[in-house]
Queue: 4 jobs
Job 1
Amino acid sequence: MKLVLFRAGAAGEPAPGLLTDRGVIDISGIVAKSYTPQLTMQGLIDGFDRLRPTLEKLAAEAQAVPLAAVHLAPPLPRPGKILCCIANYWEHAQREPRPLNMFLKNPEAVIGPGDTIRLPEFTEPWIFMHEAELALVMKGPAKLVKQADWRSAVFGYTCLIDVSARGEGRRTWKTGSWLGKSFDTFAPIGPCIATADEIPEPNDLVVRFWNDGQLRHNYNTDDMEHRVPALVEFASTVMTLNTGDIIACGTNHEGLGALQDGETVEIEIERIGRMRLDVVDPLKRTWERGVYMGADSTNPEAVRRHRPQTG
């Protein structure tokens, strides 16, 4: 199933729904409403096994509102934690093996489908870049989860754009990854949460990203250096993962490029979905358009597994 938050009009809090081929089905009648949309979705995740038979019946029989008639909100508007992997792809095996590492991204940076990425009004010599990533949606509390049991802690999957402010080269702004990646609107998430049963193998999904129609990212999650089970074990060793937390799996940096005023961007991950956002820069800065980092990711070779072979 694909779970969403949506608005039928321009105002009001979003309601929980099912995203189907026919459109969006309102499930607010069977999902307990909480103080915030985030808590409502967390309750839906925690109660999903109990609700599943009813949800399956609704998905098959209930009337749906056409997708064009609603506005999708981020399916997790304010996650408790957004953990992001650092440099987690082999990228044609040009790198030496690296230890698994993560940073925390500001949950207040979350926006959703159809929203606007707003570049900050600072005059530092930065460039603002996109990183299209698969994100894990957690079901907790999960602590000290072993790799063999990783599925017990992963409820589903969504798309995330890790928008990043960078200085010279790929150096992230100032004191490290957290600040340069945590400006308001720098964490687009959506369009839905695809439940775990929709994705038998998260390390075999194609991730694509377009900027004004130009294909930039085009890679397979099979290229992860540290794969999904290892990410769950590592993160849950450091901290308790709660329902609605997110682990972003990192990006293949081939195809990395600038974001700038007036552009439209789209991210798509197979089996999850596609979402579109606009980019606004109040300072109207410009950079050379196109791919900045590494080989052009539209090369078919970038979609294959490239971790070094041993033996």
Note: Helices lie at 37-46, 48-61, 177-180, 228-238.
Job 2
Amino acid sequence: MNSGPAMLEVKGLHAFYGQNQALHGVSFDIGEGHIRTLLGANGAGKTTVLRALCGMVRTNGEIRFDGRAIAGWATEDIVRLGIAHVPEGRGTFLRVSVEENLQLGAMTRRDKPGIAADIEQVYAHFPRLRERRRQQAGTLSGGEQQMLAVGRALMLRPRLMLLDEPSFGLAPLIVEELFGILREVNRETGVAMLVVEQNAALALELAEHAYLLETGHIVMDAPAAVIGADEGIRRAYLGY
């Protein structure tokens, strides 16, 4: 979309858990407003890529956001730049209401009218959350909790959302609905997304570009349509 440098540039990224190396020289980039997906088997390193981008694991290599080197930054400083992480397992505050969760999502912001307008915007995307705005988050269904996790991340007004397994544990119809909303959010707000997803078919429909990860290496980097159309790749790596 933009001809200048990409919004996010990752070069030669290595990541470590203690002495164990989880990523081996991963490189990719994401342009403003783009949706990309990371695919691969369990243990390929997909979640580690997201955690590395958020400063949650030890890394070597280069991570640039808007041309600024952010590798080694504290997670909260990375969040302030406009990078929102929606971890697997929802990550909502179960004992407070839906609306309080959304307000907590905007904790780093000071613009009260803007926050109120953004809560309305989240409810416009997720009408079900509006209906349950006073309910404790812990009483929501899995699908509603996932919608709330996405809504809470949107309250940061992020420029990049990192979504880890958004379909995990959800019924197929709910997943279709959620992915439809993600597409709509991207179209309307221009927020870029990097999606880690076991449901490769859905992820390839949502994203315009895909990276295939195997044991911490990117083994394929191609338009989503190309990967989705290659039966050999689908069978070998994606299991469908």
Note: The longest strand covers residues 20-30.
Job 3
Amino acid sequence: MARITGGVTTSHVPAIGAAMDLGKTDEDYWRPLFAGYERSKAWMAEQEPDVIVLVYNDHATAFSLEMIPTFAIGTGERYESADEGWGRRPVPVVEGHPDLAWHIAQSVIQDDFDLTIVNEMDVDHGLTVPLSLMFGQPDAWPCKVIPFAVNVVVYPPPSGRRCYDLGHAIRKAVESFPDDLNVQVWGTGGMSHQLQGERVGLINTEFDTEFLDRFASDPEALASIPHIDYVREAGSEGIELVMWLIMRGALAPDAKEVHRHYHVPASNTAVGHLILENPR
């Protein structure tokens, strides 16, 4: 049956995608950031996942203020890159895995998590930038992807505890799927950053480092961080880190960190990245 073998967390800064698309990755400003993902790309080539459940937040492209689902799972066959105002990113079409997506939806909803089921949507930089960081610029993405969107844009977002528990439910769902699949779960967004107001440009390296240090070994404590602490310590957009907790909850309690990268700044954001593996 299907199994979750590992997970990835990474920031999804739109400027990172633009740097790749415009051939700027070797410029002095960007080179240190992309260097931290070289090992990650080698790891991905070794792992060869069949499916990635990719947790991200939509940035008002698939969902507008007219409809804001807290949790939404993509059950479609394919997803185009969204036009976010400057044209579609020149990246491959994302191929979905409807059978596993519908199975996860059924299992998770019956475990009392309300999901919005989305059969058609475009996916924005929140999903495509992590794929580019981990796979580079291929002609086609090498595996299927199930988009899993979380509202962290409009108040109120889900709590870290709710996200962590949702990860447990996703793990249960995947492990009950009968096909032999190598599945990864990714959590994206963060780290500390604020895009508006008096604290625009905020970066809190101390908070970010502690979050990274405790992510593998003490996720229960991280799941208890209240919303207001994210805002105070990590900025208004730091709340994106609750999406990492879905990934952590989906992995085994004794999952091990195998790679870490932290870089400041990328645009006006602290970039964080972790790879965790489940015990074999």
Note: The longest helix spans residues 160-175.
Job 4
Amino acid sequence: MSKKLFTEKEIKILSKNKNIFKISSKSIVYALEFKEKFIEEYSKGKLPRIIFQENGFDIEILGIKRVEQSAQRWKKSYNRDGLLGLKDSREHSSGRPKNRELTDAEKMEKLEAKIRFLEIENEFLKKLKKMRRGW
């Protein structure tokens, strides 16, 4: 959680954004659709700041650190659990880890998502390497 607290005015501005599910002075819960869109765009090489701006967020209100931390958290969750990792589980969770086994379909979805992400990441790194060499 960020140390920056939102003012009532900032909350009012941010709450108009369709990509925000819930907001308080201390935190933001982003819509699942936005998180999925973020991962898709990020995988294509867009910077987190650009993705947030293109989706109607004022970076000065959010703060660049909050944007970067959200990006890191979503990438980590997506790599670990696929699209299931992007869902907000706070309302449905007691805080204890689940002991249930994933279904075969859930395991396949998770592994396929991880493969897609890694393939896209590799292509991006190859392009970046070529750009640095000046090709």
Note: The chain is about 60% helix and 5% strand.
